[in-house]
Amino acid sequence: MSEMLDQIRSLGDQLRWASEVSPPHTGTFSEVLFAGMGGSGIAGDYAASVALPLGTRVAVHKGYGPLPAWAIRVRPLVIAASYSGNTEETLDFVTAASESGMPVATITTGGRLAELTQDNKWATISVPAGMQPRAAAGYMIGATLRLLEGAMSIDDHRLAFNEAADLADAMSAEGGEAWALAEEIATGLQGRIPIIYGGGSISSVVAQRWKTQVNENAKVPSWYSVLPELDHNEIVGWETMPTMTRENVGIVVLRDESDHDRVRRRIAHTRELTIDAVPWVGEVVSRGSSRLARLISLTVVGDLMSWMLAERLGVDPTPVVTIEKLKKLLVED
């Protein structure tokens, strides 16, 4: 299991690599349409969160084509990201974008996407290969932000990269405060379905990452929900089967300073109203000054926790056998 842990703990080095990449010039864009799936797709969500207060819209598309109607009208920069370069949905979408004459940039290690990039002379950032896509998050997030810089969509983020990298190193050190927090949460979630709550443009993005890391590393079902929306539906879902949910489900809350003050009050009231039906296992508060650093700080705890949960369950966090089986079935169709 040390292979996945080593990859998780390389996040700081991945971000430093990204800070040294020279972003290609793509033209100037205030609208970006990012296409990607899974471990590659999460990079678009993180980039959208970073760009949000800067006046740039990064819309994230996860699926096949065709292009949304607004994109055909606005003609944003299309960023296609696939770590392997062979993601079926992303290839389908970028083909539709190319056929529509859209400006395209790519992020990949190779595969068919690299071939299309070369054939069409698209701007690209080639990231280091040899990792599980979900463990290459620093490369993919970093490359996406560098492309946004090249498109003049956001300012130079190299200082934020370095802050986030140093924070990732410190927080992933064994025996530290973040390591202990991850262990505590993993222990509390063992034998339970993890439910991750976020409440803002940073905490909600990372809640999605926690959910998918639990799925792929620990091979355990999980979901994430967002406040205040969940207070308009999910909160009553704990009423009917409290005996079952008390034993089999656990909630973790992610917080950031950008969360609305009313969301903070909602978290307290929601916990009070549901605690008899579902244990609230833990809470993680972001660290850092830049938005990127705060995103990464929450990410590190979740990544470590998912690895620790896999260890406690006795499963290998690295392979994703069922995903590979599904890909083979789709090839045979």
Query: And the CATH topology of the largest domain?
Result: Rossmann fold
**Beta fraction:** 5-15%
Q: How far apart are the first and last residues' alpha carbons, in Å? A: 34 Å
CATH superfamily of the largest domain: Glucose-6-phosphate isomerase like protein, domain 1
Unreliable runs: none
Biggest sheet architecture: 5 strands, parallel
What is the total tally of β strands?
A: 9
Can you give a write-up of this model?
Helix 12 links the parallel strand 8 (249-255) and strand 9 (280-285). With 333 residues, the chain is an alpha/beta fold. The protein folds into 2 domains: 2-156, Glucose-6-phosphate isomerase like protein, domain 1 (Rossmann fold, 3-Layer(aba) Sandwich), CATH 3.40.50; 162-313, Rossmann fold (3-Layer(aba) Sandwich). The protein starts with a helix and ends with a helix. The protein is built from 14 helices and 9 strands. It has a 5-stranded parallel sheet, with helices on both faces. Strands 7-6-8-9 form a 4-stranded parallel sheet, with helices on both faces. The radius of gyration is 20 Å and the shape is globular. The chain has helices at 2-8, 11-19, 38-51, 69-74, 88-99, 111-120, 137-150, 158-171, 177-189, 203-218, 242-248, 261-274, 291-313, 321-332; strands at 31-35, 57-61, 77-82, 104-108, 123-126, 193-198, 223-226, 249-255, 280-285. The mean pLDDT is 97.
Features:
single chain; 333 residues; alpha/beta; Rossmann fold; 4-stranded parallel β-sheet
Q: What topology does this entry show?
A:
Blueprint: H1 2-8, H2 11-19, E1 31-35, H3 38-51, E2 57-61, H4 69-74, E3 77-82, H5 88-99, E4 104-108, H6 111-120, E5 123-126, H7 137-150, H8 158-171, H9 177-189, E6 193-198, H10 203-218, E7 223-226, H11 242-248, E8 249-255, H12 261-274, E9 280-285, H13 291-313, H14 321-332
Parallel strand pairs: 1-2, 1-3, 3-4, 4-5, 6-7, 6-8, 8-9
Helix pairs in contact: 2-7, 2-8, 3-7, 3-10, 8-13, 9-13, 10-13
